[in-house]
Specification:
Layout lengths: L2 E7 L9 E7 L4 E7 L9 E6 L4 E8 L7 H9 L10 E10 L9 E9 H13 L6 E4 L10 E6 L4 E5 L5 E5 L14 H22 L5 E6 L5 H11 L2 E4 L3 H7 L18 H50 L8 H15 L8 H12 L5 E5 L2 E5 L8 H4 L3 E6 L2 E6 L2
Parallel strand pairs: 1-4, 4-8, 9-12, 12-13
Antiparallel strand pairs: 1-2, 2-3, 5-7, 6-7, 9-10, 10-11, 14-15, 15-17, 16-17
Helix pairs in contact: 3-4, 6-7
C-alpha cells in the first residue's frame, strides 16, 4: 500500500456528497486532509470508509457454547429482541469474544458485535465502485473511539450527528441540531451552539445515569472543534471534566478497527483489481463482440448444413430418376458412368474417348498435333508449338499436363 484515503461517511451520503477525509502515506503519516465531494478527493491506492452516526450499532450479547457452524443462528436468535429490523436484513461483525460473566452456563460466551444494515452497506460499496474507488475496508465510528471506565469519548465529524462510547461498552449515536447560518463548516451563532450543547448535554445525562458511576473525564473529538465556551457549559451541566481532542485519534484508530467487509461484502481488491476496474467495460465490449461473432458463425454453419442437405436430397432424386432400382453406393461416380454409357449408346463421344480429347486439343490450341499416342484413357499429343495456356482444356472435363510442346490429357477424376 502506497497511500490510503480514509473517509468519514455520514448517514446522508451520497445525497449530501461532502464528507471529511484524510490522506495518509504508506507509513501512516497524514499527507493531506479536507472536506469535499468525491470529484475533489485525492487519488489513493486504498480507500477506507468510516460509517458515521447510526449506520452501525455496537451490541453485547451472550450465546451458549456451540460449534462454529451453529454460531450464526445463535447470534441471530440473541439479536432478534435487540433490533428494529429483521435479523436477515442486518450484517453482523464479531469484534470481541470473551467468557461470559458468572451465570447459569459457565461455558457461555459474551460477544461484542457490530450490526449494519445490509442494504445500506451494499449501497455504500456500490457507490464507491461507481466512483472507481473500490473499498478495501469499511469500519464503524464506534470502533474508532477509545473508551474506559475512567475516560469516555464523544466524536462528531460532520456536525449533523455525534457518536458516544462509554466505559460500560455502550455506544450511542444521536443527531445534532443543524446550523442555520453558514452550513456545517461555516460561521454559526450563539443560538446554534446553545441547541447543540442542549442535545449533547441531554445525551450525556442519559448515559451517565445508565452507567451508574461517572468517568473522570470525557474527551471530545469534534471537527470543527467545539467552542471552548460550549465545553465549559457541558462540564458544568454534567459535572465531568471535558477535554477537547483532535480528530487525529479517530483517523488513527480506524486502521486497527475490524472491517465490516466480509462474507458477501469481501472486497475484490488486490493485484490486478485496479486494472480490472479500468478495463472491465472494454473487456465486456470485446466479449460481447466475440459472442455475436460466434452466434453469426454458428448460424452460417447451420445454413451450410441446410444447403448441403438440400443438395444431397436433390442428388438422391436425380439418381433415383436416372438409375431406378440401383442402390446408391457412390452416386456421383455411378451417374458419371451412366452418362458415359448413354453417350456411347447414342453414338456420342465421352470425355475419356480419344477423339473427344483430340477435339478438345484442337479447339483450344488451334493446331493439329504432329503426333499422338492413346493408351488406357490417356492421350499424349505433340504440338507444333507450345500452347499459351491449357486452362481452357480443363473446362472440357480433362486433366492436362504440359511439358513444352507435349500435352498429356486424361479424364478428370
Amino acid at each position: 500500500m502506497k497511500s490510503r484515503l480514509t473517509l468519514l461517511v455520514p448517514e446522508h451520503w451520497p445525497q449530501t456528497p461532502e464528507c471529511e477525509w484524510q490522506l495518509s502515506d504508506r507509513d501512516g503519516r497524514t499527507a493531506q486532509r479536507g472536506r469535499s465531494a468525491p470529484r475533489h478527493w485525492p487519488r489513493a491506492d486504498e480507500h477506507v470508509a468510516i460509517l458515521d452516526g447510526a449506520q452501525t450499532s455496537l451490541l453485547t450479547i451472550t450465546v451458549p457454547p456451540s460449534k462454529r457452524k451453529d454460531r450464526p443462528a445463535l447470534i441471530a436468535y440473541a439479536l432478534e429482541a435487540r433490533l428494529a429490523r429483521e435479523v436477515d436484513q442486518e450484517h453482523v461483525t464479531i469484534v470481541a469474544d470473551t467468557a461470559a460473566s458468572a451465570g447459569a452456563n459457565p461455558d457461555a460466551r459474551q460477544l461484542a458485535v457490530l450490526v449494519a444494515g445490509t442494504a445500506r452497506l451494499r449501497q455504500v460499496c456500490a457507490q464507491f465502485d461507481t466512483l472507481q474507488r473500490p473499498l478495501h475496508r469499511a469500519v464503524s465510528i464506534f470502533e474508532c473511539l477509545a473508551a474506559s471506565p475512567e475516560c469516555w469519548q464523544l466524536a462528531s465529524g460532520d456536525g449533523r450527528s455525534a457518536a458516544l462510547r462509554t466505559g460500560t461498552g455502550s455506544a450511542i449515536a444521536f443527531d445534532l441540531p443543524q446550523r442555520n447560518d453558514g452550513g456545517d463548516t461555516g460561521g454559526h451563532g450563539q443560538a446554534d451552539d446553545d441547541g447543540r450543547v442542549e442535545a449533547i448535554a441531554a445525551m450525556l445525562d442519559f448515559a451517565l445515569r445508565d452507567a451508574g458511576s461517572p468517568p473522570q473525564r470525557i474527551e471530545l473529538a469534534f471537527t470543527p472543534a467545539l467552542p471552548a465556551e460550549c465545553c465549559d457549559t457541558l462540564a458544568h451541566r454534567t459535572g465531568v471534566a471535558l477535554q477537547p481532542l483532535g480528530f487525529d485519534a479517530v483517523w488513527a484508530r480506524s486502521a486497527q478497527a475490524h472491517t465490516l467487509l466480509h462474507g458477501g461484502f469481501a472486497p475484490k481488491v488486490g493485484v490486478g483489481a485496479s486494472l480490472w476496474t479500468t478495463l472491465r467495460w472494454p473487456a465486456l465490449a470485446a466479449g460481447t463482440a466475440l459472442a455475436l461473432a460466434g452466434i453469426a458463425m454458428a448460424a452460417g454453419v447451420l445454413a451450410d448444413r441446410g444447403e448441403a442437405a438440400r443438395l444431397a436430397q436433390r442428388q438422391d432424386r436425380v439418381f433415383a430418376d436416372a438409375l431406378p432400382g440401383t442402390p446408391a453406393i457412390a452416386p456421383a461416380l455411378q451417374l458419371q458412368r451412366a452418362l458415359r454409357d448413354a453417350r456411347h449408346a447414342q453414338g456420342e463421344l465421352a470425355e475419356d474417348d480419344m477423339l473427344s480429347m483430340l477435339g478438345a486439343v484442337v479447339a483450344v490450341t488451334g493446331s493439329v498435333p504432329e503426333a499422338f499416342t492413346y493408351r488406357e484413357q490417356r492421350l499424349i499429343a505433340d504440338l507444333p508449338a507450345a500452347p499459351a495456356s491449357t486452362a481452357a482444356i480443363a473446362r472440357h472435363g480433362l486433366a492436362v499436363e504440359a511439358d513444352g510442346k507435349r500435352l498429356s490429357l486424361s479424364p478428370s477424376p
